[in-house]
Amino acid sequence: xxxxxxxxxxxxxxxxxxxxxxxxxxxxxxxxxxxxxxxxxxxxxxxxxxxxxxxxxxxxxxxxxxxxxxxxxxxxxxxxxxxxxxxxxxxxxxxxxxxxxxxxxxxxxxxxxxxxxxxxxxxxxxxxxxxxxxxxxxxxxxxxxxxxxxxxxxxxxxxxxxxxxxxxxxxxxxxxxxxxxx
Length: 182
Fold this sequence. Notes:
Layout: E1 6-11, E2 17-22, E3 27-32, E4 38-43, E5 48-53, E6 60-64, E7 69-74, E8 79-85, E9 95-98, E10 104-109, E11 114-119, E12 125-129, E13 134-139, E14 145-150, E15 155-160, E16 165-171
């Protein structure tokens, strides 16, 4: 992908393109997976630290590694559409994930014990108080619940997405970073 720091990837639902966030580099790598493969680099204002794609593949969100903001990229034109400031964060975030329905977007910052829930239109932001070192998450099949791994304090925060509130916190052992439902 033109970087030795490929961190997270997303592939469009039709399999035509791969997007790679190049952690600590200031570009999004875009790989054409068609019969004429090629690599593009979308220059962004600062280093990157996270990547998420809407379930329909129409929006790519990229986390700025230096400031609390998200870059909104159009995968049709491979261009930066807008920048979203994360209202409640003082430090840069790290993880951004869409819920499977695309109704909710959750952002966490390993540097702060908080997260943000955004609506599908990226207009409304709601703050979550999380454990120390929040990282990745898993969305429950009920569509209303997300579990967030708090790596540094060894807990999992269970969140009701519709109410934007913590339901409970569960001890899980220090170092929990990734979660999945299957």
